[in-house]
Amino acid sequence: MDLSNAKIVLGVTGSIAAYKAVYLGRELLKIGVELRVAMTEKGTKFVTPLTFRSALSAPVVVDQFESPTAYNMNHIGWARWADLILVAPATANIIAKATSGIADDFLSTLILAAGCPVVFIPAMNSTMYLNSLTQKNIKILESNGCYVMTPEYGELASKESGHGRFPEIQSIIDFVGDIIVKKKSLKEKNSS
Ligand SMILES: Cc1cc2nc3c(=O)[nH]c(=O)nc-3n(C[C@H](O)[C@H](O)[C@H](O)COP(=O)(O)O)c2cc1C
């Protein structure tokens, strides 16, 4: 699968797995992805924007009302730029917000404005993940054309085992790669 030159916005939310997004971002850069990072305010409680700026040399936006560094550094500019939005880790909260079309911060507004595939990588405590509301929200997102990866079963931050563990980075890259390949072949088919 070829992700080189793909333009991806990495969305980082307030999960204990947020630090793993730094490693995910580094692996995406190694395979030639162009990256930008959109963090929720709660995401910044776990990892700072500075970590992403320094480790990935990528633009990072948290607050959509910050003075932009360029004219198109707003949610519409980013939505037009992106080939794919990858929310990893995705909290139960961002999943619920995206399900309802809530757009009350930069990342949720970007998700609503996106014309490209939006991929969610849930990471949470297993009771939150298996809660029927979260499960219903995931189904709604999928029926709306979004992609939601099934998290792994394994040891969680609480030290219990359960569903909701952030998947291995390579599995996420494979999942995203398949989506980009499918989109590309659909585009080629439609234009031929
Ligand atoms: C220590 C800690 C760890 C958390 N880990 C998770 C998590 O892994 N997944 C999740 O859905 N919520 C988790 N939460 C709760 C979210 O941070 C909370 O729902 C927050 O409002 C999410 O905001 P956001 O979606 O805007 O980032 C955690 C909260 C704390 C204090």
User: What characterizes the major β-sheet?
Assistant: 6 strands, parallel
| Side-by-side strand order of the widest sheet | 3-2-1-4-5-6
| DSSP strand count | 8
End-to-end separation? 22 Å
Low-confidence stretches: none
Count the domains: 1
Name a few traits of the molecule:
alpha/beta; Rossmann fold; 6-stranded parallel sheet; two-stranded antiparallel sheet; globular; binds flavin mononucleotide
How would you characterize the overall build of this protein?
Strand 2 (34-39), helix 2 (49-56) and strand 3 (60-61) form a beta-alpha-beta unit. This protein has 192 residues and is an alpha/beta fold. Helix 1 (20-30) packs parallel to helix 2 and helix 3 (75-81) crosses helix 5 (106-113). It is built from 8 helices and 8 strands, in the order βαβαβαβααβααβββα. It has one domain (7-191): 3-Layer(aba) Sandwich (Rossmann fold). 39% of the residues are buried. The strands form 2 sheets. It has a 6-stranded parallel sheet with strand order 3-2-1-4-5-6, with helices on both faces. Strands 7-8 form a two-stranded antiparallel sheet. It binds flavin mononucleotide. Flavin mononucleotide binds next to helix 4.
